[in-house]
Amino acid sequence: VGNLHADWCVHTADTFFARALADDEQVSWTGVGGVPDLGGGASGVSLSDLDGALESSRMEITNAGAYRSVCVELKAHHLVVCAIVNSGILNDLEQGALLGFETGTKGTTRLGGHDAAGAFKTLRKLVSNWLSDASDYGNEYADKLLQQLQRWLFSPLSALREPALRHLVELCMKKVFTLLLAEIRKLQVDVVYADMRRIIIATGKHDLASAASCVEGLKTALHKRELFSWLELEPVKQWHSLLFRGPFDYAGISAVNLPGESQWQDSIAPMDAQLDPRAVRTGEHSLDMVWNIALFLPEAVREHFYAIVGEYLLIPWKHD
Q: CB count, 10 Å around CB of 182?
């Protein structure tokens, strides 16, 4: 206990991963001061240079528009768990180009076209064990490690930080993310915005009860797919109507009850006093206004901008 670091999750994950690597007869790359000893030509390259060389583009989908049905923001949990544990499915879809195929005994296994494929295989085994401990035996520490899995893998404080391994994990996450969005579209749900942390969908429903059923149906359908078996989509916010330009430029008519509640109820129309854009900016949330572009407008013009956007949202909704 006295040897545990301040960030016990990262330290514990490092310890378990180091033991798993040793069990699989792999060489640990831990170096002095937490900088990985990658050997060969990599020894003369700084860690930041390696991170930059392997850095991949941000995954983000934006479909700007005016959505006149109930829209829901879903927070995505355990995407990294799905990506690692079900990486075999991704590998099959890539015809072995991701991780390679096992063609014989341990000594003759052919690993695929990525430098970190061997370490990734050990990581997958470790995460699968944590899942078993958490789900089958109710181990709260295993569950905590799973919750912190992505933070550990990407943390600069991790003693087993390795840019190539992180890159491979990110690659798998992006493939799962892309397949997830494709599956959502197959279920006739419009994706307004998505990154690997949250997804905003337009349900096509005009009352909250129907929208709630749509969200639950979506979650049930996704859980039936093995690739998304460990994915959790948590509804965190909802709008009756949404005008969306981007994650930092949007406006919506906020619904009173969050979709995470057991029963959704239709909220009453906001009072006229609440529709004043000045009331919005003083803390009343009938209109959810997030406009970065408005910050570049003169104060007098900004008032008109908020008023016009508010009317554009509210007038059609009142007459729906």
A: 10
Residues of the chain with pLDDT under 70: 1-2, 31-57, 96-97, 100-114, 256-285, 320
- Residue type for position 28: S
Q: pLDDT per residue over 246-269, tens digit each?
A: 999 999 999 865 444 444 444 433
Q: Give the whole-angstrom CA distance, residue 252 versus residue 287.
A: 6
Q: Is 152 exposed, middle or buried (0-12, 13-18, 19+ CB in 10 A)?
A: buried
Contact 161, 144 (CB under 8 A): no
Pairing of strands 249-254, 190-195: unpaired
Look at the chain and count its residues.
320
Give the residue from 109, 75, 112 showing the smallest Cα distance to 94: 112
- pTM, whole model, 2 decimals? 0.80
Candidates 233, 183, 182, 197; CA nearest to 60 is: 197
